Amino acid sequence: MEEIVKLESIDQYNKLRGVETLHPLVSVINLSQANSLPVQTFNFNLYCVYLKELKCGELKYGRSHYDYQEGTLMFIAPGQVVGVQPKNGVQARGWSLAFHPDLINGTSLGKNIHEYSFFSYDVNEALHLSEKERQIVLDCFAKIQYELMHAIDHHSKKLITANIELFLHYCNRFYDRQFITRDHENKGTVEKFERVLHDYFLSDQPQQQGLPTVGYCADTLHLSANYFGDLIKKETGKSAQEYIQNKVIELAKERVFDFEKTISQVAYELGFKYPQHFTRLFKQRVGITPNEYRALN
């Protein structure tokens, strides 16, 4: 079994890269002036962002392989496992930003880090930058690097975290743009989602596995759950969970008119473990209970 190396600290990460540690909790590295990571699988306890400016290597992330392209950003969150498989003879060019979770404790960024869902995207869902966007990213990295070159004082943490947060805000904007401009890549995802739900409810899976989850639908479509959820939100204005619930209610409205079945039987066929949960959701969405709906119609 392959050994997995745990990356626990910024200093450990910097030593692998062959660069000096200027701050114990954050690092900005020009990859053209650093060592490549060894061919190894790493379990990150750090937040890492990679800006690649040259097609220079391959990552294995979960089940996916991804060849770096020019001008792409990839994000790694603590707890994620990444395998590095560089191509021989090609020197990396680009930048990396790494910061330890302790850096953002008690800060605005620490409270809001969960909002940057792209940290849980798969590598094949990386952010592709325009030249202007790339310049903005480099400017953010330069400001963070300036602070690292400055002697640590009581302003350091606030300025560093504020600039990281600014960078992540820009990434949110850039991903919004990508969902639009790369529409050909996303085209048909909602229709495929609808087909997954249609096939699921035509099968006996609801009785065996319960209601379909966002994770199940994303996995079926070969997308990460967060990327899938964000894409559905952008395309429909509803969360993926809301979309699933709407589908359930749509089917429920049809099936309650099968008078040979009780409301409990309808609930079980749709995947509800407890009929009262079905009744509660139906009333929340329709305004009346399934029994009342059946009687009124």
Task: Please summarize what this structure is.
This protein is an alpha+beta fold. The protein is 48% helix and 16% strand.
Features:
Jelly Rolls; alpha+beta; Arc Repressor Mutant, subunit A; sequence-specific DNA binding; 10 strands; transcription; 5-stranded antiparallel β-sheet; 16% strand; elongated; Tscrpt_reg_AraC-type_HTH
CATH superfamily assignment of the largest domain?
Answer: Regulatory protein AraC
Strand content of the residues, in percent?
15-25%
Reported for the largest beta sheet, the result is: 5 strands, mixed
Terminal-residue CA separation: 62 Å
Whole-number average pLDDT?
87
What's the alpha carbon Rg, rounded to whole Å?
Answer: 24 Å
Q: Within the largest sheet, what's the order of strands?
A: 1-3-8-5-6
How does the helix and strand content classify structurally? alpha+beta
GO molecular function: DNA-binding transcription factor activity; sequence-specific DNA binding
Organism: Chitinophaga jiangningensis
Domain HTH araC/xylS-type: 195-296
Pfam family, one: HTH_18
Can you give a write-up of this model?
- The protein has a five-stranded mixed sheet with strand order 1-3-8-5-6. Strands 2-9-4-7-10 form a five-stranded antiparallel sheet, sandwiched between helices.
- The chain has helices at residues 10-17, 108-112, 131-149, 156-181, 183-186, 189-202, 205-209, 214-220, 225-236, 240-255, 263-270, 275-286, 290-296, and strands spanning 4-7, 26-30, 41-44, 47-52, 57-61, 64-67, 72-76, 81-86, 94-99, 127-128.
- A hairpin with a 2-residue loop joins strand 5 (57-61) and strand 6.
- Mean pLDDT is 87; it is low at 56-68.
- The radius of gyration is 24 Å and the shape is elongated.
- Helix 10 (240-255) crosses helix 12.
- It is α+β, with helices and mostly antiparallel strands and 297 residues long.
- The protein is built from 13 helices and ten strands.
- It folds into two domains: 4-181, Regulatory protein AraC (Jelly Rolls, Sandwich); 187-296, Homeodomain-like (Arc Repressor Mutant, subunit A), CATH 1.10.10.
